[in-house]
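## retry 2 of 3
previous attempt timed out at serialization; input unchanged, resubmitting
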Amino acid sequence: SDWSSDVCSSILAESVPSVPASVLDEASRRFHSPENISLGCLQVRGLFWPLSCDHFVRDYFELRHHVTRSSSVHEDMRTSLGFPRVLRTADLYTMASVWEFKVGADHSQARMIQPNSFSHDPEWAEGAAVDAATIRRAHAKNCTLVLHNVELYWRPVALLSLSLSRLFGVYSQANVYYSPPALAAALHAHQDAQSVFIVQCEGRKTWTLLEPPVRWKLRYNQRGKAGDRAPEAELNRPLEEITLEPGDVLFVPRGVYHHTATPEGGEASLHVTIGVETDTDHFTWHALLADTAEAP
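## retry succeeded, writing output
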């Protein structure tokens, strides 16, 4: 279907709360308007189908994980933008040939994550260029290639990120993960400071979700990143093990521990992770109370 505002205006808006207009400037009022929220809802319903936006926001967002099998998200991109799917492996090589991706450089940030870790492989120094040969070399070493902020470089990913921003009212940012097959542990157990939608594009990946002792982690106290390893005592409450196939979408609330693996005998796994940046945008109770305490 056509994702235009004309089509959206004919659809009844769902009851997703909007920001009070009295605290916003004109541009912000337009962005947080019920009409724009409805447009975002229309554009991302495939990520959590068959739930309505109201149902998802009320009962799942930042609360519990959700899996959508055979989502319409790739077909939506084909229909609306003419792209065969959200992202393909060939598209990584296209982006690498057009954009100057570099290791550790802002807005073109790339990382080669060593197996069973969340640590960058030191073979690639800060500022090193990322080209097709680099991608192949990373996979030869069983590293997972991570590209950050891909919403700035690839139109289908940009549309998904923008649509989630419309629905939730905060910035949404997208990373790409490209892992070789047959990794018993691609990334070790870690937490994210944002709730994320994982769109499986190619290959298969197995996700193990674990309940943390405390939910709703913020960026400063998430575990399992930047050289940190999550305490074993916090990894003993399994929630579910889920293997994603192309077209599947997994939603993981912020703070939920997860680690990943790729099955043997298959192709490389490619997925897009889109984070709803409630912490980055200070859209949390913690940020509200902190701002209130600091107000004159």
